[in-house]
Amino acid sequence: MHIAFLLFPNVTQLDLTGPAQFLSRLPDAKVDLVWDSRDPVPTDAGFSILPTATFAEVRHADLLCVPAGSG
After folding, report:
1. Is residue 70 in a domain?
2. What are phi and psi of 13, to 5 degrees?
3. Which of 26, 28, 38, 44 is the most buried (most CB within 10 A)?
């Protein structure tokens, strides 16, 4: 199962990493943190998260997760 989490500036870090931690433990799960580039994406907590893939690299996902945030 391919799971894609959308990254964006000012994403709420806990809304991203909590579900990602849980879903990554599913059997045969592949989790990607997706943004338009692989540059660090700032969170609303003042630190950045590195994407693992770009939109162009992820053509299909079985599950798309969009965390909360002000971005």
Report:
1. no
2. -55, -45
3. 44
| Residue 11 DSSP class | B
Range of the domain at 24: 2-65
0.90 exceeded by the pTM? yes
* Sign of torsion over alpha carbons 18, 19, 22, 27: negative
Enclosing H/E stretch for 53: strand 53-54
Residue 61's CATH number: 3.40.50.880
Summarised one tens digit per residue, pLDDT across range 39-71 is: 999 999 999 999 999 999 999 999 999 999 886
User: Got the DSSP string for 15-41?
Assistant: HHHHHHHHHTTSTT-EEEEEESSSS-E
